[in-house]
Design goal:
Layout (H helix, E strand, L loop, with lengths): L2 H9 L6 H7 L6 H17 L2 E11 L28 H14 L3 E6 L8 H16 L3 E5 L6 H9 L4 E3 L9 H4 L5 H13 L3 E3 L2 E3 L5 H14 L3 E6 L16 H14 L4 E4 L3 H5 L13 E3 L11 H10 L3 E2 L9
Parallel strand pairs: 1-2, 1-9, 1-10, 2-3, 3-4, 4-5, 6-7, 7-8, 8-9
The structure holds iron/sulfur cluster.
Iron/sulfur cluster binds next to loops.
Length: 332
């Protein structure tokens, strides 16, 4: 397969097939730079040179009853992660203002629990979203787990939620190896409830958990199928105490290859480099945009520390790219 012919077909609106996506994972050695160059062109064509940033806040940390094997916040693993209940609205809004000052266009409320339930918790979340939205400085987003009732998605939409993150994490085939307390279909159903309310979908996965390239491609194809607007590409940063604590980190070029294939399979999506960026890409972080990413997170992750946001803004400038203006986010 000629990667540049595939690139040209995608630029004209074509779609990469499963076999083609699988073949992209075989690019190696000097050919790898061809893969990155083609992915970079696709990013430029569909997303331009304006990079989006988002920040997240862990609004409820630790003691999650689920058993996701990569997660330091599951109550089943001894990880020493900080534990606290849902923060109050003022604390959340204050942090949203700080994220806007750092240059983020989106601010996500993230909670460690199975899913969002009706009652006081939903009321608190909706009040936080309404207040952040009313300030008009940053888009309010959320990542609050499984939604089992359409009325919850409706309440979030009415409160002004812009985008909801709910990762597929991996392929349907591999999913039972990473979680047994909920299913792949639970995750797909959550996305359907949100889409029905017109909420943007942020959904991606974690690479480097022992999955095959077939698993990677099948997850990306499912993300294309569900119409993910934003696709976070996380690289496993093994957390001591979790069942994945001893898994070796993915090499940087393999991480970049995952970003490039994601760009080929989801050409119009906002491909976001997320967790594990610093730990796995190391000095090759500056390559992430040239391998197809159009977005990254600013500041800290859920249970690990990100780097100084000023370094990322400088990186953008050094790469000849610019930060998207806040208004640009409404376009996707
Ligand atoms: S549901 Fe979320 S917070 Fe809970 S264990 Fe899984 S990934 Fe961690």
């Amino acid at each position: 397969m000629d990667v540049f012919q595939l690139r040209d077909r995608i630029l004209k609106g074509g779609r990469a097939t499963r076999d083609e996506a699988l073949e992209l994972f075989t690019y190696d050695g000097p050919d790898l730079m061809d893969l990155f160059a083609a992915a970079n062109r696709i990013r430029h064509h569909f997303r331009g040179d304006r990079i989006t940033f988002c920040s997240i806040m862990n609004v409820k940390s630790g003691k999650c009853a689920e058993d996701c094997v990569f997660c330091a916040q599951s109550v089943r693993y001894k990880t020493g992660v900080q534990e606290y209940q849902l923060l109050d609205v003022d604390a959340i809004v204050t942090e949203a203002r700080e994220a806007a000052k750092r240059g983020s266009g989106c601010f996500g409320l993230v909670a460690a629990w199975r899913g969002l339930t009706k009652g006081a918790i939903l009321d608190n979340v909706c009040e936080s979203l309404r207040r952040i939205k009313a300030e008009g400085i940053i888009h309010p987003d959320a990542s609050l787990g499984i939604i089992e009732d359409a009325s919850i998605a409706r309440a979030l939409a009415e409160a002004g939620l812009h985008e909801y993150n709910h990762n597929l994490e991996t392929s349907r085939r591999f999913f039972p190896r990473i979680c047994t307390t909920h299913s792949y279909d639970d995750r797909l159903q959550t996305i359907r409830f949100l889409k029905a309310e017109g909420i943007h979908i942020c959904s991606g996965g974690i690479f480097g958990m022992g999955e095959t390239v077939q698993d990677r491609v099948d997850m990306l194809l499912d993300l294309r199928e569900v119409g993910a607007d934003t696709v976070p590409v996380n690289f496993l940063n093994p957390m001591p105490g979790t069942p994945m604590g001893d898994v070796a980190k993915m090499p940087p070029l393999e991480c970049l290859r995952c970003l490039a294939v994601a760009r080929f399979v989801l050409p119009e999506a906002d491909i976001k480099t997320a967790g594990g960026r610093e730990a796995c890409l190391r000095d090759l972080q500056s390559m992430m945009f040239f391998a197809g990413a159009s977005s990254t997170m600013l500041g800290n992750y859920l249970t690990t520390t990100g780097r100084n946001s000023g370094m990322d803004l400088q990186l953008l400038e050094d790469c000849g790219l610019t930060a998207a203006e806040k208004g640009a986010f409404a376009a996707y």
